[in-house]
Design brief:
Elements (H helix, E strand, L loop, with lengths): L1 E2 L7 H43 L6 H15 L2 H9 L7 H35 L1 H7 L2 H19 L1 H5 E6 L2 E7 L10 H36 L10 H31 L5 H14 L2 H13 L2 H6 L2 H8 L17
Parallel strand pairs: 1-3
Antiparallel strand pairs: 2-3
Helix pairs in contact: 1-2, 1-3, 1-10, 1-11, 2-4, 2-11, 4-5, 4-6, 4-8, 4-9, 8-9, 9-10, 9-11, 11-13
Length: 333
């Protein structure tokens, strides 16, 4: 939670704060519990299927790591549920407070990076099939995944420094504290930098890249008369759409809250407690929704009940590479 030590300490403010906490706590708990119940077995199933039952391809390596990032996050969800149930009174200590934020932001960064990798991989297969297939390998995908994890860890490491559990208003609040002292406003640039960099690197730039890739794919497919581009690589497309829908409210709220807080000179404003927990929980629904999408993309509901899970996942992750279709191999090299 992005906030700073509040300089307003009046009875009216405390009353608004308590009401805001009560309003958001129930919604946060309900969404978080649902995320945990669906996310642990769902992502565990994907990890088992892709890791042990199905042959890994150059692309499914990225989906395997995407599920691993989601699985690691949902393991920390119960801490947030307890925190919310105690009306945002953190009982788990400083270390777990830091790790909770660290894992959450790694999930945010790694997820969009893996989706960007999948999109770039698909785009290169369509635009330069012969050239790219000669250089494409699972070893390349493994190296790309290692790079994504390392980059995510580096970008999220500042949260280990800034996050802390501090006593405020007779509660232990686990939050991201960019301001070591209330009086020292020189640290304002730290919050602005972290939020804006996170928005650009972990959302805006990858989303623009992903959209560009699928526009190129769509134009290529239509020009080659190879069918409906929406049906090609559908698992990647629906996964990207789910990420965009879940994460857009959080990113917008973070930007608006940042500048609103500067104007109010109080980051610990009730609006943060009304909006932030809800958009935060909604964003991380994405960590449990992907396995559900894989099953439904893999087959209809009726057939899904009759098919084995292996068959469902095989269909969901069938690459259907356009470069293997008639006429495409003679395209641009």
């Amino acid at each position: 939670m992005v906030l700073a030590n509040c300089s307003i300490n009046t009875k009216d403010f405390l009353l608004h704060w308590i009401k805001a906490v009560l309003r958001s706590s129930f919604a946060f708990q309900a969404i978080s519990i649902l995320t945990f119940i669906l996310g642990v077995p769902g992502n565990g199933l994907v990890l088992w299927m892709l890791g042990f039952r199905l042959p890994l391809t150059e692309t499914t390596v990225f989906f395997l790591n995407l599920s691993l990032a989601d699985f690691l996050y949902v393991l920390f969800v119960p801490l947030r549920v307890v925190y919310s149930n105690r009306l945002f009174d953190w009982p788990f200590g400083e270390f777990l407070c830091k790790m909770d934020f660290f894992v959450a932001f790694i999930n945010m960064h790694a997820s969009i990076f893996f989706l960007a990798m999948v999109s770039a991989d698909r785009c290169l297969l369509v635009t330069m099939p012969v050239w790219y297939r000669k250089r494409r390998s699972k070893r390349f995908s493994y190296m790309a995944c290692i790079l994504v994890w390392l980059l995510s860890i580096v970008l999220c490491s500042p949260y280990l420094l800034f996050s802390s559990a501090q006593i405020m208003f007779n509660k232990t609040i686990c939050f991201i504290n960019y301001y070591p002292t209330v009086e020292n406003t020189a640290y304002n640039w730290q919050e602005k930098t972290m939020v804006l960099v996170r928005f650009l690197i972990a959302f805006f730039i990858p989303i623009i890249m992903i959209i560009s890739c699928y526009i190129i794919i769509g134009l290529r497919v239509r020009r080659m008369n190879l069918g409906n581009p929406a049906r090609v690589y559908r698992i990647a497309i629906v996964t990207v759409l789910a990420f965009f829908i879940n994460w857009t409210p959080y990113q917008i709220f973070s930007i608006i809250s940042l500048f609103q807080n500067v104007k109010l000179n109080c980051s610990f404003h009730p609006s943060v407690f009304i909006g932030y927990p809800v958009v935060y929980a909604f964003a991380y629904i994405n960590s449990c929704i992907n396995p559900i999408l894989y099953v439904y993309v893999g087959g209809g509901f009726t057939r899904k009940l009759l098919q084995s899970l292996v068959a469902v996942f095989e269909k969901a992750f069938n690459e259907d590479d356009l470069s293997e279709r008639k006429g495409l191999s003679g395209g641009c090299h």
